[in-house]
Each structure stands twice: as structure tokens, then as C-alpha cells.
Amino acid sequence: MKAQDITAVSAVLPSSEAAECLLELLDADAFTPTVWEDVETGEVRLDIFLEEASAADDVASAVKATAEIAGLAVEVTRDTLPAADWSEAWKRFFHVEKITGRITICPSWEPYSPRKDEAVITLDPGMSFGTGKHPTTRACLEFLDLLAEGDLTRPVLDMGCGSGILSIAAKKLGFSHVRGFDYDADAVAVAKENAALNGVSIPYETRDLANNLDQGAVVLANILGPVLITYAAEVACAVLPGGALVASGILDTLYPEVKAAFERYGLQEARSRLIGEWRSGLFLRPDGV
After folding, report:
1. Matching CATH number, 94-284, of 3.40.50.150, 3.40.50.11810, 3.40.390.10, 3.90.180.10
2. Which residue in 51, 124, 202, 265 is a FRET match for 60, CA 20 to 30 A apart?
3. What is the pTM of this model?
């Protein structure tokens, strides 16, 4: 195989819910699985793109075994894609997408003329993740847009920044002080690249929730529910008095436990948003608490 070629391990899935279930169970420390919904055919598929073909058999076995655990009957395939073909093929999955009245996600290859008050976030997914298509990211952006109607001098902290989409959106909406961190150094590197692509300056650092010392009047935590429960104290302590927490990445069935965990540390639920099987919450800390 030529050095520039890409090996793809793929599985077509019955629904986006099935895809998210598979992602929840898949132990993917050594690779990044990506879920795509083809806007032309409606097909939902999971793809893992590998630069080393020698890893394909192990990755395919891991996907197949995880699908069986999830009760999904899927066929796992592998293909070799010339880099030039691959780089153009995935573009059909991504188009301009309006998230709220003010927030729009736009791939760099599509022309778009925004309104004067519109926050346009340019993201090229490539082999990374965090494009705004997932329900948890969408809900976070909706809550962030709502919070941006208030004081824009409030400091924003993006916990588990991933691709940086939430912190970049905060900057684009006019928040003046925005920071972010992630435990994954690769995610931090991607976030920095995306911030530069969007012409905004955001300091990102590599660290985990247990070692966070920053606080924000607006805290964004699009992190899996079990992690939010485990680190509820650390997350809650990051919210300044009078501040707000946007918590996401939570399956609806687990949301009551997450809500109770934050309430134990003085946060009060203001509202929640259910999209599919994912529920996100907006929590407030009263002044002086």
C-alpha cells in the first residue's frame, strides 16, 4: 500500500441511536471512530480511518466484538482508499448547518454569506471529530446562544474541549474571556488548529478534571454522564457564584443521577433539553453560593 493511502474499517448501522450505542461501548484508545450520516442517502455508518494498514484486522475485530455486545448485527468491512479519493469523498457528509438563529457550522469548501449578527464556525472534520452534528453538541450550542444574550464579559471555561467547537462558538458569540482544556493532547492540538482556522485566540491546555484549577461564570462540560457524576464536585466548583453550567453527553436514563449530583454541590437546574436519547442541562449557581 502506498504511504499516502488510507485504510478504512467501516460498518453500516441501522440508526444514529445504534451508532451512538456502539460508540459508548467501543474501547477506542488507539483509534478515533467517526459516525457519519450521508445527507444524500440517509445511511448511517461508522468509519475508522487508519494510516497503518497493519492495524486494520485488530480494529475490525474490536468493532465486530463490540457490535455483538450491543446486540447489533453489522457487517464490518475494510477498504483501501487513495488519500486524494478519501479527502474528497467525506465532503458529501458535511454541508452548511444552522444550529440556532445565530450559530451556523460551515465547512471551509462551501461558500456562505452570513448575516451581520451570525456566528459562523468553520470546521473541516477530516479524520477528527466534533462537528456539531451530535445531539449533545447541538444542545450545548443552543444553551450557549441563550447565555450569550447576557453579560459577555463573563469568563467561559470549556471542560473537555474536544475539537474546540463550543469555546470557538463562545468567542464568535462575543464572549471576551474564553479558555479550554482536555485530557487528550491530540484533542487540544485539534482545538488550537480550529481556533486558528476561525481567527480567534483561545488558550487551551492539556489536563484532566481532577487537576482543573480554572473557574468560569459560564462552564461548558460536554462530557459523558458517568464522568460528570464521578467528578461532580470538581465540575461544580468550577462554576463561579452567579454562574451557569451547561452539562451534556448524558443519556436521558442517567440524567436524574447527574442532576442530583450537581444539586448536592449547590447548582440548580434551570432547564433541560432532550434530543433523541441524550438530555443536556443548564444549571445555575446562585450569587454568594
Report:
1. 3.40.50.150
2. 124
3. 0.73
CA distances from 73 to 15, 66, 79, 87, 143 (A): 12, 11, 20, 29, 36
Domain coordinates of the chain in residue numbers?
Answer: 6-87, 94-284
- Under CATH, which architecture does the 6-87 domain have? 2-Layer Sandwich (3.30)
> What is the separation, in whole angstroms, between the first and last Cα of the chain?
60
**Burial (0-12, 13-18, 19+ Cβ within 10 Å), 63:** buried
Render pLDDT for 241-284 as a digit per residue (tens, 0 to 9).
999 999 998 888 999 999 999 999 999 999 999 988 889 999 99
- Provide the pLDDT for residue 128: 41
